[in-house]
């Protein structure tokens, strides 16, 4: 694995290896000294063309916990704001000796272009590219941390599957993804990865917030949240942020009103009570409390939203480790 660009690119074996490595990384984070020397001398660049808090800090923390040098690059206040192209930015980073570039970009496909253009290195010596979100296309590490969280809570707790489900996929589990699917790279990535890992997925949204061609995705769709929760009985419910900033013409073209959306598609106390006893509540963040999720649901005992953030560090440590050290003990240190 030279790059991590799309959840759709991951085989079942690749995904399980990443999740198992993340479990090892998570175990090291309970130690008094959390740093590992694995990537000492390597340079990781966070190249963010869109605003981000959780993802950027998570990747920075992950790289530093592996002892890599980290350079944070924001398009705002850089030469990009003066008109510098993606190519020239990439050539600059390569000349500075970057070993990996974590890129978030407003344009779908930008990470793929960086990985395959040759701007960041040669075919024999490429710079690893990790997609931290591109447009409405993909966000593979978010899907991985979501799968990691689901596996820790719902796999391996009974029947002798093993601690936290290590080595296991998600076969037999049901996940409902609810809300603004149209603008969500998280939804696309999760559908890809959860299907690969054997889970069943149902997308729940109003017709205006489902993309054209969704019938070809490896999932089911529904317009009725209550029917999905009570009839299908999902093991995990993932609420999506309503991305009003991506809605050209304003949110009124997609939603009748925020109040009506919340009434039909928001996760509130009543719907929370309709879930199976073991079911968990998820959200990729940031949340619009009172719109797609109520405070009671977000802060309930079923919520694993804060844990998702913590698990993101372990998953991104695993991705950097496998891309830059190859998972080889010869190039790193045993976990």
Report on this model:
35% of the residues lie in helices and 13% in strands. The chain has 335 residues and is an alpha/beta fold. The protein has two domains: 7-137 and 310-324, Rossmann fold (3-Layer(aba) Sandwich); 140-308, 3-Layer(aba) Sandwich (Rossmann fold), CATH 3.40.50.1370. A five-stranded parallel sheet has the order 7-6-5-8-9, sandwiched between helices. Strands 2-1-3-4 form a four-stranded parallel sheet, sandwiched between helices. Helix 2 packs across helix 11 (305-324) and helix 5 (140-154) packs across helix 6. The two termini are 20 Å apart.
Give the gist of this structure.
The protein is of the alpha/beta class. It folds into two domains: 7-137 and 310-324, Aspartate/ornithine carbamoyltransferase (Rossmann fold, 3-Layer(aba) Sandwich); 140-308, Rossmann fold (3-Layer(aba) Sandwich). 35% of the residues lie in helices and 13% in strands.
């Amino acid at each position: 694995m030279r790059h991590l660009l799309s959840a759709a690119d991951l085989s079942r074996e690749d995904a399980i290896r990443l999740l198992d490595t993340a479990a090892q990384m998570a175990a090291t984070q309970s130690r008094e000294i959390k740093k590992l020397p694995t990537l000492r001398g390597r340079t990781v660049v966070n190249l963010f063309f869109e605003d981000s808090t959780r993802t950027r800090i998570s990747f920075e923390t992950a790289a530093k916990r592996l002892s890599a040098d980290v350079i944070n690059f924001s398009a705002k206040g850089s030469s990009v704001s003066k008109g510098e192209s993606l190519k020239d930015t990439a050539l600059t980073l390569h000349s500075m000796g970057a070993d990996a570039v974590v890129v978030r970009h407003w344009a779908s496909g930008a990470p793929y272009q960086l990985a395959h253009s040759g701007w960041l290195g040669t075919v024999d010596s490429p710079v690893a590219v990790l997609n931290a979100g591109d447009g409405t296309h993909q966000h593979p590490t978010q899907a991985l941390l979501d799968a990691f969280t689901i596996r820790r809570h719902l796999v391996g707790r009974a029947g002798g599957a093993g601690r936290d489900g290590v080595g296991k996929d998600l076969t037999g589990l049901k996940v409902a993804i609810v809300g603004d699917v149209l603008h969500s790279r998280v939804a696309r990535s999760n559908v890809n990865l959860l299907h690969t890992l054997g889970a069943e997925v149902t997308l729940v949204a109003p017709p205006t917030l489902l993309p054209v061609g969704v019938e070809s995705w490896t999932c089911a769709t529904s317009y009725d949240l209550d029917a999905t929760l009570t009839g299908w009985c999902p093991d995990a419910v993932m609420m999506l942020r309503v991305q009003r900033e991506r809605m050209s013409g304003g949110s009124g073209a997609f939603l009748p009103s925020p109040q009506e959306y919340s009434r039909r598609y928001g996760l509130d106390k009543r719907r929370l009570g309709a879930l199976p006893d073991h079911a968990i509540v998820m959200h990729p963040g940031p949340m619009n409390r009172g719109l797609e999720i109520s405070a009671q649901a977000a802060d309930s005992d079923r919520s694993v939203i804060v844990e998702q953030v913590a698990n993101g560090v372990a998953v991104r440590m695993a991705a950097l480790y496998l891309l830059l050290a190859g998972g080889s003990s010869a190039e790193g240190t045993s976990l």
